[in-house]
Amino acid sequence: MNFSFLRNPVVRFLISVFTLYIIWYFVYKLWIQPGQKLDLFVIDLTISISKWILEFLGYTVYTGADRLIGVDGASGLWIGDNCNGIALFALFAWFIIAYNGKIKYKLIFIPIGIISIQLLNVLRVIILAILDTYSRAWTEFNHTYTFTIVIYGFIFFLWMIWVNRFSEK
Q1: Residue-wise burial string across 5-34, b where 16 or more C-beta atoms lie within 10 A, e elsewhere
Q2: How many degrees, rounded to 5, is the angle at CA 150 between CA 75 and CA 29?
């Protein structure tokens, strides 16, 4: 068999990302998600920061023991595992790990990227909670479409920073 295609850096990158995805999937599904500790930690952190900022902006905010945050007078938001950002943190990190670059830069860039993605997720929750006071339809539309584009666009932007500034060409 001829495995010369493995010398292609694009093929190696894609294999690396796919391998990291498979490892992450099994680690998450078998150990992390069943315990719920990481998911609940990130959700609680998101709710706490969002609540603090909303109250700073003058809103009266309620939270619930079961992943709930809302502005008084609105139905509120329930933050599920798929919306806590952990999968996005992993997706971002896989790309940086699999792409060429010095380890010291990766050890700095990955945490900065994860923190910035988390802050963007907090901003998303804040905006959705405010939108929910006006229209549930607006909330649903922006949750499903607008913020999906914004979040993935931001992750792509971070990847481009990595490729253009920190990777080894």
Answers
A1: eeeeeeeeeeeebeebeeebeeebeeeeee
A2: 75
DSSP secondary structure, 17-56, as one string: HHHHHHHHHHHIIIIIHHH-HHHHHHHHHHHHHHHHHHHH
Domain ranges of the chain: 4-166
Work out the number of other CB atoms within 10 angstroms of the CB of residue 84. Answer: 22
DSSP class of residue 145? I
Q: What angle do CA 105, 108, 110 make, to 5 degrees?
A: 100
- Asked if 70 and 129 count as a contact pair (C-beta separation under 8 A), the reply is yes
Ordered per-residue pLDDT tens for the chain, 169 residues: 677 777 788 888 889 989 999 999 999 999 888 888 999 999 999 999 999 999 999 999 999 878 999 999 999 999 998 899 999 999 999 999 999 999 999 999 999 999 999 999 999 999 999 999 999 999 999 999 999 999 999 999 999 999 999 987 6
- From the DSSP assignment, how many helices (H) and strands (E) are in the chain? 7, 3
The C-alpha atoms of residue 140 and residue 145 are separated, in whole angstroms, by 8
Is-contact 137 70, C-beta < 8 A? no
